[in-house]
Amino acid sequence: MVLKDDCIFCKIVNKGIPADIVKETDNFIVIKDINPVAPVHLLIISKRHYDSVLDAGGENGLDGKSGIFRLLGELAEDFKVADNGFRAVINTKEDGGQTVSHLHIHFIAGRRFGWPPG
Ligand code: AMP
Ligand code: ZN
Fold first, then answer.
1. Which of 9, 36, 82, 118 is most exposed by smallest CB count within 10 Å?
2. Is this prediction's pTM over 0.85?
3. pLDDT at position 55, please?
4. Domain map of the chain by residue range?
5. Environment class of residue 68 by beta-carbon count within 10 Å: exposed (0-12), middle (13-18) or buried (19+)?
6. Does ligand 1 have an atom closer than 6 angstroms to the CB of 21?
7. Residue 114 contacts by C-beta under 8 Å, 6 or more apart in sequence?
8. Which DSSP state fits 106?
9. Atom 15 of ligand 1 has which residue's CA nearest to it?
10. CATH fold of 8-109, please?
11. Could you say which of 49, 102, 104, 106 is catalytic?
């Protein structure tokens, strides 16, 4: 399965519903979160549908070829937060607080975040 019919993020990947797209790579589309929790709040969404990060590893996944670390660095430069820093978060399943079952990484920046998370 590359895309899933009833998945909102697949529709965004497909350009079936609008989103504020800030960057695109071979494996990811980066959009602005519709409900930002920080001055910068981006979602790095995999172009293929994976229910969660648990499905995205291994041979048929994104391991080793995703370019995710390069992309994080590029976004930090693009959004001028490389000096102050940022947080990248993958909420996974119920305990992780995942609400959309399509792999995505939150990129948040522009203020100081606490630890541990609530
Ligand atoms: P999570 O709770 O980790 O699954 O994150 C889902 C995120 O997707 C939330 O931060 C929502 O605000 C965001 N979101 C849901 N629908 C859209 C949309 N249509 N466009 C942009 N962001 C969205
Ligand atoms: Zn999907």
1. 118
2. yes
3. 85
4. 8-109
5. middle
6. no
7. none
8. E
9. 34
10. HIT family, subunit A (3.30.428)
11. 104
